[in-house]
Design a protein that fits this description.
Helix content is 88%, strand content 0%. By secondary structure, it is an all-alpha fold. Helix 1 packs antiparallel against helix 3, helix 1 packs parallel to helix 4 and helix 4 runs antiparallel to helix 5.
Length: 174
């Protein structure tokens, strides 16, 4: 009985560890993917941050650079967690939701390319509008699967609204 009990406990612990890893690994993977896009965006932005961006007329509500450095990692973390949760659910909407996740992530990167890389705020405003719509669609589909996933993206959606205002201000006054 003692030997069987030890083997059984070991098997149960191994099963639990495997189950936890199967759930954790996708979340970690999506977080890493999100941060990779954030890193690429920052590399695209860097040259313009030295000369072009400081020369723009910006809103008085434009936050200092440190705010962006704090907010974006939090948003990328929440994005990755939300996509990982969806991946783990395996519902009929999983593939659509993950597709929308990658669409919004691609648009997120494209905004940096258009605004900073191409220095084209008007085009960037169009991309940002599409990004906002993509995130809304992602949240709507995710909400049907698990409310928490949609709620995790509320800060991102609010930040995008603020970004739309800031980008629009740059378009109007430059």
């Amino acid at each position: 009985v003692c030997i069987y009990d030890r083997v059984f406990r070991h098997a149960v612990l191994c099963h639990i560890k495997t189950a936890v890893m199967k759930r954790f690994l996708p979340i970690l993977s999506f977080v890493v993917i999100s941060f990779a896009v954030g890193y690429l965006s920052s590399m695209i932005q860097e040259p313009s941050m030295q000369e072009w961006y400081p020369s723009l007329v910006k809103s008085s509500l434009n936050p200092p650079g440190i705010v962006f450095a704090i907010v974006w990692p939090v948003l990328y973390l929440l994005m990755g967690i939300s996509a990982g949760i969806i991946w783990n659910m395996r519902s009929i909407y999983t593939w659509l939701t993950i597709f929308l996740f990658f669409v919004q992530l691609g648009l997120n990167l494209l905004w940096s390319v258009t605004f900073f890389g191409m220095q084209a705020p008007v085009v960037a405003l169009v991309v940002l509008t599409l990004l906002f719509v993509a995130v809304l669609m992602y949240m709507a589909i995710a909400y049907m699967q698990r409310h928490l996933v949609a709620y995790l993206n509320i800060p991102y959606l609010l930040w995008l609204l603020f970004a739309l205002y800031l980008n629009g201000f740059v378009v109007l006054y430059n």
